[in-house]
Structure formats: structure tokens, C-alpha cells
Write a sequence for this structure.
């Protein structure tokens, strides 16, 4: 049972470099999300997708982009990384956006350090 | 603005009971969630409240008062494995989740 898989688990990269965090789910969930988690702050939504082919901006979208070409994959790209993007990134999914219990299923996280 | 408040850290003794409070001010309300997150791991779903009252699930219970903008998570018969952070989140009128910073619960023998 895979659920949601994120890659890489951990990465150190130089400021200014381009980086893509991968996220794949095998639960056929319609909705997918990218969050960042920083010490002392709650999870903050970066981008979301309610269904394949659509995406939306969350609370902190600047410097990030996403795509949702199919149901399973939801990559997050940092076009030109900056130190303030050092964080733990979580990908999550739910069967449908805003319905039912709204339970989110999270990937194991990607720890990104930008120097 | 939208705000979720919960204590930063709490300490309790193995076998005891602990109550973690959460107060919220959000644009609309479409449910309140509690998640558990062990250090270095992903959050996992614990409970969901949309109506006032108590929801019980084994050793864990969650309470909601919408008029007071208040919830608590009650953990009974504490075990060492309950040492974790507990995240409170509210789904607002746009069906987006607003998250608290989490409460780190330390269990001592």
C-alpha cells in the first residue's frame, strides 16, 4: 500500500537553482495539496488542485508553481530557490475537495534546505 | 484575519488524562479537525467535528462548541507513544483548511 509518495526525502540546494518536488498518489483521489511546515507556524497551503487539469493558489504561492496533468501526479516547482524556502514540504490528497470529513492523507514530507 | 490558537507545549504523565484546547476565529466554519504528528513524520487524521458536542473514538475524544469557537482533544490512559504534536485545523467558508501551529505533547513515565 503506497498511498502518497514524495521525492526527494531530503535535498540541499544552492540559492537560484530550480527544484521540482515530486508527489504521486495511487488512491485515485481527486484533490491534491502542497503545504509547507515551518517551526512555530501551522501548515500553510502553497497550491492545490481540486481535480486533474485544474490548480489554484493557496496562502503562500509566490515562488512556487504546480501542474496537474493527471490524477496521480502533482509536482511542485521552485523556479529559483531562495533561503526563505527552506522548509519541510508535505503533499496531501483527499477523495474530493471540501466534502465529507475532508480527511487529508499526507506524504512523508520533503525536507528542503536552500543555502 | 483567520486565527487558530492552541498551546505550544504540554506535559503529562503516562496513564493520566490530558486535554488540549483549540480556539479559532475563521471566515465561516465547515468543520474542525485534529491531526497527530510524530516528530519527523507526516500528520495523520484523528477526528472531525462539524456539530456541537463530543465525538469519542477509543482513548481519544474531541469536543466542539461552535458558538464559543472552541474545541478540545481529550486523550485518556496516556501511553508513551502518544508523545507527538497535535494539530487543530478549521475548514473555512471556502473549504480551505486553516491550521494551528500545533501542541507538542510530552509524556513522562
Amino acid at each position: 500500500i503506497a498511498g502518497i509518495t514524495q521525492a526527494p526525502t531530503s535535498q540541499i540546494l544552492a540559492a537560484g537553482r530550480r527544484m521540482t518536488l515530486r508527489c504521486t498518489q495511487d488512491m485515485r483521489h481527486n484533490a491534491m495539496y502542497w503545504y509547507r511546515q515551518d517551526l512555530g507556524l501551522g501548515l500553510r497551503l502553497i497550491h492545490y488542485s481540486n481535480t486533474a487539469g485544474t490548480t489554484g493558489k493557496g496562502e503562500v504561492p509566490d515562488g512556487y508553481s504546480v501542474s496537474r496533468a493527471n490524477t496521480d501526479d502533482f509536482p511542485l516547482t521552485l523556479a529559483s530557490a531562495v533561503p526563505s524556502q527552506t522548509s519541510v514540504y508535505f503533499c496531501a490528497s483527499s477523495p474530493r475537495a471540501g466534502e465529507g470529513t475532508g480527511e487529508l492523507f499526507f506524504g512523508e514530507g520533503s525536507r528542503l534546505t536552500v543555502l | 484575519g483567520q486565527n487558530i490558537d492552541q498551546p505550544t507545549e504540554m506535559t503529562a504523565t503516562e496513564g493520566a488524562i490530558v486535554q488540549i484546547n483549540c480556539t479559532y476565529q475563521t471566515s465561516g466554519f465547515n468543520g474542525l479537525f485534529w491531526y497527530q504528528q510524530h516528530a519527523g513524520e507526516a500528520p495523520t487524521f484523528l477526528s472531525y467535528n462539524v456539530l456541537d458536542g463530543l465525538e469519542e473514538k477509543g482513548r481519544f475524544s474531541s469536543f466542539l462548541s461552535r458558538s464559543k469557537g472552541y474545541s478540545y482533544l481529550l486523550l485518556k490512559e496516556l501511553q508513551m507513544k502518544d508523545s507527538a504534536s497535535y494539530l487543530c485545523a478549521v475548514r473555512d467558508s471556502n473549504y480551505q483548511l486553516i491550521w494551528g501551529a500545533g501542541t507538542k505533547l510530552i509524556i513522562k513515565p
The radius of gyration of chain B is 13 Å. The first strand of chain B starts at residue 3 and ends at 5. Chain B touches chain A at residues 4, 30-31, 33, 35, 41-45, 48, 87, 89, 91, 95-102 (CB under 8 Å).
